[in-house]
Amino acid sequence: MGSLSIDREQRYKTIQLVVQRLGLTAEHTVLDVGGGTGALPSYIPTPNFWSCDLRGGGPRHIACSMDRLAVREAAFDLVLQADSLEHIPPERH
């Protein structure tokens, strides 16, 4: 069985394509769970991009655990996660 090698740029461009197909616009709000202060916001066409994790910071960052989100239900139009599940211990999946 072969391996699937996709670099971060390819992964984020794939997410960008999915977001475009969903029809998100600048008015929509997006939450990247486990996103910290990564590069993903530059691929999503909205100034309403938030991230949440235990680290990171900035004006649109929520400090919280991925399994205990500190946001109210339906607060965001899109919630996504990329590049962070591998940091969660298996017993917390």
In words, what does this structure look like?
The protein is of the alpha/beta class and 93 residues long. It has one helix spanning 8-22; strands at 30-33, 49-53, 61-63, 78-80. The chain is globular, with a radius of gyration of 14 Å. It has a 4-stranded parallel beta sheet with strand order 3-2-1-4, with no helix packed on it. Helix content is 16%, strand content 16%. The mean pLDDT is 85.
Throw out a few tags for this protein.
single chain, 93 residues, alpha/beta, four-stranded parallel beta sheet, 4 strands, globular
Question: TL;DR of this structure?
Answer:
The chain is 16% helix and 16% strand. It has one helix and four strands, in the order αββββ.
Helices, strands, pairings?
Layout: H1 8-22, E1 30-33, E2 49-53, E3 61-63, E4 78-80
Parallel strand pairs: 1-2, 1-4, 2-3
